[in-house]
Amino acid sequence: MAPDSQLPRPAWSADIAVEPGSDLWVFGYGSLMWNPEFPFVERHAATLPGYHRSFCVASHRYRGTPERPGLVLGLDRGGSCRGMVFRVAAADVPATLDCLWDREMINRVYRPKLLQVRLRDGRSVEGLEAVRACCFVVDRDHPQYCRGLDEAAVVCRIGGCCGERGPNIDYLANTVRHLDDLGIRDDRLARLLTLALEQIRTADG
Length: 205
Fold this sequence. Notes:
Shape: globular
GO cellular component, one term: cytoplasm
EC number: 4.3.2.7
Number of domains: 1
Number of strands: 7
Enzyme class: lyase
Structural class: alpha+beta
Oligomer: single chain
InterPro entries: ChaC, GGCT-like, GGCT-like_sf
CATH topology: Hypothetical upf0131 protein ytfp
Distance between the termini: 69 Å
Protein name: glutathione-specific gamma-glutamylcyclotransferase
CATH class: Alpha Beta
């Protein structure tokens, strides 16, 4: 058997330091909240300070095309973000990180960071009111990062773009619906949905 130093290192090991044999917390702010695709032993409503949920990532494939890129969500600097945090048992951490890197890091538009998140559901974890969790923050130097889009530009792109997984508006509507199901109200996204639907109705005459 090859010594540990000669074994292939997992893709995530270059991006995030995880203590061997330790549980891992993962923060979800979009589809990870309702479709995590990894095993977890508990979850809590949580708030990540210092970042907000934003349509700041260009989608050239799933919700748009290279000629007409759509927009998908990222965690961008400023404000705060309500989401869900999941505890992954130590035995499942390597496979979970493999899954997350395959899902979130294909284009490396995100920078994974271990950040402090506050629990919101009235419970505590071993007496703690906050935990350090893996968070996928947008890389502002990445070509797919959309800097400085105003509300009108975001609405125009969401209302008018479509990719392999369907219209961009469906992505927004699905996100708002699932957030509502989880009891998380995001007024910014709800307003974008209203405006984008109005744009589509106007275009349809």
